[in-house]
Design a protein that fits this description.
The chain is of the alpha/beta class. It contains 20 helices and 18 strands. A hairpin with a 2-residue loop joins β1 and β2. The two termini are about 30 Å apart.
Length: about 700
């Protein structure tokens, strides 16, 4: 059945459905044309008998009675008090909430929900991949783009900035334009600019592409949870939203595995002259777009949320979608004869009036400007609504909990690999070899010199050919009649050296590597072009390993939270998980080796995931349909702001002290966990 667009010959008027000719025809009056029926209507046999459960597009008997009651005192909406209209709408929404819950229970939970589960799971997976991509490509991208430390830091934060803005924008638009439409647009933006970023060569354009890519995928999280929750019954909601969270973990595992298998093969790719290089890390960026594209294609075959359609008064479309859900599930259960018994669904009174300019009025851009400004005004009103008296306290508490979770989690996930790298560097420096007053003459050196310091020595008539300097320092040395050919270097410096009658040919030994040195009769020929940070660090794989294990470690927590979400409740899950995570932070004081730090990271992530899952569920359940995606977007945007702060603050303490990051993370988690206990429990309530 085609359900994405249903022709509607009936229009909603005063709470009822009337034919589009503007008149209501009761049972005693003949229609204008006997054969005029809604395209969406079927179910008549040759004797013109109506099959049970088939929607005919006619007014429900309850509507006729309600209309008759309202006829006498009825007054045009424009002359009624707005508070009265809002009160009437809230009453309608409450009736709809309970009726919709019964309808979803009648539709059952089966093939349709599981299909949507995997489609939306791919979108959530794309969000998880986006978080990891930049961190994985940085070590290789800096070689192609000559990135400084500040540039690398900006590249790491720009994705979170895009996701922060995108969450607020797409979350707000999804409550006005529809879940499916906004999710498709946001995923399309992410896929297009992520794909484009793999080909650009300049740092500025690459930064811009990742920013817009983050802006697109920022809409994934708020829309996916609002979208899926509106197809779930109360008894299934907590568990299956928690299962859906697993796709974020799968995204992290996918990105880690692909990085591990692709990026180290730096030779994969091609070059076009000396200016254009397409190396393995760019292949990895393309591979990471696949989950997003897969979800984008699959979404084209999924319907809009019927709960959203009912909220905006599109009764017939919502009914057809719910019938599709019912029939799909019944066929999968082997009960195709089961009839969808719902004939009419309560539709809330429509208050918002969308300003429309006729095609003959104004130019096309004026009409579009009015549409855009009206939509933005409605989105802004939704944002403010989340801070009204009814929701203000819950919004503030949720904002604190979201921020504290993101600040500690994202801060520590950056701090863990940085600390491990710092411990590695300490161990590496402990193996430093020092050479004093050496005198080397008439030899050829064609092997790597690594982790060495040479002081007060002499190199006379030495040829350095096709070799590498790695973490080598020359201090107060004399180089006389030496020849450097095809030499690359990393973390290498010449300090206060004297260089006589020496030739440098095809090397990356630039001026900045010579500090207070004296040159006499020295020639530099054909210096290497581009950025030659030059060879892969042997511990680059550790980034992938730590991320892979950190993502995998949340699997037990995901399973436990899904199974217990509806048994112990959302509030206890959030508070308990955050307090346990705070305790785990104190074990970090004992992290004095790489293996211990990796183990502690896995412990922290595993304890932390249950709070994330419960937080996603309760955020969906605390807000009504017309504000659900907006509220989720605001809170998720604040979450990304916490991630930016956490990344910046925690990284600054690496190698200085462990006390501040540990105390900061644990105290923030304790505060957030205790505040979460003041939220209302939502596992027994229907979706408003």
């Amino acid at each position: 059945i085609g359900v994405n667009q249903v022709s509607d010959d009936y229009r909603y008027q005063d709470g009822n459905y009337a034919p589009s000719d503007g008149y209501y025809h009761d049972g005693n009056e003949p229609t204008q044309e006997e054969d005029a029926q809604s395209d969406a209507t079927e179910g008549h046999d040759e004797d013109d008998e109506v099959y049970e459960g088939e929607y005919q597009g006619i007014p429900h008997p309850d509507d006729i009675k309600g209309k008759q009651k309202k006829k006498a005192p009825a007054m045009a909406d424009e002359f009624r008090d707005k508070a009265e209209l809002i009160a009437e709408r809230m009453e309608d929404e409450e009736q709809l909430a309970h009726q919709y819950e019964n309808i979803i229970e009648e539709c059952g939970h089966g093939r349709f929900q599981w299909t949507l589960f995997f489609v939306l799971g791919l979108a959530l997976m794309a969000d998880g991949v986006e978080v990891f991509v930049v961190g994985f490509v940085l070590p290789s991208a800096e070689k192609d783009m000559c990135l400084s430390s500040s540039n690398k830091g900006m590249l790491g934060l720009i994705v979170y900035l895009g996701m922060m803005v995108g969450a607020v924008i797409w979350g707000g638009l999804a409550d006005k334009l529809g879940r499916k439409k906004c999710l498709i647009i946001s995923l399309a933006i992410n896929a297009a600019f992520a794909f484009l970023s793999s080909f650009v060569q300049g740092y500025g354009f690459f930064l811009f592409c990742r920013l817009i890519s983050g802006l697109g995928i920022g809409g994934s999280l708020p829309i996916v949870f609002a979208y899926f929750s509106e197809f779930l019954s109360r008894e299934k909601r907590g568990e299956h939203l928690s299962w859906l969270c697993m796709f974020w973990m799968i995204g992290g595992i996918y990105a880690s595995a692909m990085a591990w298998s692709i990026i180290p093969h730096y030779g994969w790719g091609f070059s076009m002259g000396t200016k254009y290089h397409f190396h393995s890390w760019r292949v990895f960026v393309i591979i990471c777009v696949l989950p997003c594209i897969s979800s984008l294609v699959a979404l084209k075959f999924m319907p809009e949320s019927p709960r959203f359609l009912l909220e905006i008064g599109k009764h017939d479309e919502a009914w057809m979608i719910l019938k599709q859900v019912h029939d799909t599930n019944m066929r999968a259960k082997g009960e195709p004869e089961r009839v969808f018994t719902v004939a009419h669904i309560k539709t809330p009174k429509q208050i918002d009036e969308f300003i429309e300019i006729q095609s003959s009025t104004g130019s096309w851009y004026q009409r579009w400007l009015v549409r855009i400004m009206t939509t933005l005004k409605q989105v802004w009103d939704n944002l403010l609504y989340c801070l009204t008296a009814q929701y203000k306290m819950n919004t503030l508490i949720l904002a604190t909990v979201w921020f504290s979770m993101a600040f500690s989690y994202y801060g520590l996930t950056v701090w863990f690999p940085d600390m491990i790298r710092y411990l590695q560097n300490e161990e590496y420096e402990s193996r430093l070899k020092t050479f004093n007053r050496e005198h080397v003459t008439h030899v050829t050196i064609n092997f790597t010199l690594e982790n060495q310091i040479h002081r007060n020595g002499v190199f006379l008539n030495i040829k350095f050919a096709k070799m590498k300097f790695k973490y080598v320092t020359f201090e107060d040395m004399l180089f006389e009649e030496c020849y450097f050919e095809d030499v690359t270097s990393s973390e290498t410096v010449f300090r206060n050296c004297t260089i006589l009658s020496t030739v440098f040919y095809n090397t990356d030994l630039y001026e900045d590597k010579f500090i207070e040195c004296r040159f006499i009769n020295v020639t530099f020929l054909h210096q290497k072009e581009g950025c030659h940070l030059d060879f892969e660090q042997e511990n680059d794989f550790l980034i992938y390993l730590v991320s892979f294990l950190g993502s995998l470690s949340v699997l037990p927590g995901n399973i436990i939270s899904a199974l217990l979400m509806d048994k112990i409740g959302r509030i206890k899950m959030i508070g308990g998980s955050m307090l346990i995570s705070a305790v785990c932070c104190f074990f970090l004081f004992f992290g004095n080796s790489e293996s211990v730090m990796i183990g502690l990271q896995c412990l922290f992530c595993g304890a932390n995931i249950a709070a994330w899952n419960a937080l996603d569920v309760i955020t969906v359940e605390l807000y009504p349909t017309s504000k659900r995606s907006t509220a989720f977007g605001i809170l998720n945007g604040l979450c990304k702001f916490g991630a930016i702060l956490g990344n910046s603050i925690f990284a600054s303490f690496v190698g200085i002290t462990k006390v501040v990051p540990i105390l900061l993370a644990s105290s923030v988690l304790v505060v957030g966990g205790l505040l979460a206990l003041r939220l209302p429990e939502t596992r027994e309530q229907v979706l408003m």
